[in-house]
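Structure (tokenized):
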């Protein structure tokens, strides 16, 4: 299982142009709920029709602003380059998988 990391140089390629549905996770190293969520993401199986992409808001403030991220963790479900769902705060992996499948 591979979690991708995006920044302004590869964001368009790995998120917006992805042929798969993308679970996009805006996080920060210092954020407690982000660390809990990170453990959940590591247990997910994104090879099955979706990918997980993480963006560190401290290293990529422009992307965080562009996506209007107010707090972390904030997640988006991206399909064909468009956000179809957004989640703020921690959710267990079962809930995240449901939201991805719904998309």
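Design, position by position:
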């Amino acid at each position: 299982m591979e979690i991708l990391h995006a920044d302004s140089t590869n964001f368009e390629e790995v998120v917006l142009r992805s042929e798969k549905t993308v679970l996009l996770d805006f996080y920060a190293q210092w954020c407690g709920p982000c660390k809990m969520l990170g453990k959940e993401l590591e247990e997910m199986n994104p090879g099955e029709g979706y990918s997980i992409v993480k963006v560190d808001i401290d290293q990529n403030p422009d992307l965080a602003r562009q996506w209007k991220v107010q707090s972390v963790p904030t997640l988006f479900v991206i399909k064909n380059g468009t956000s179809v769902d957004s989640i703020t705060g921690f959710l267990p992996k079962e809930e995240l998988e449901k939201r991805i499948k719904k998309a």
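Reviewer-requested clarification: Strands lie at 3-5, 21-27, 50-56, 74-79, 82-88. The chain has one domain: 3-102.
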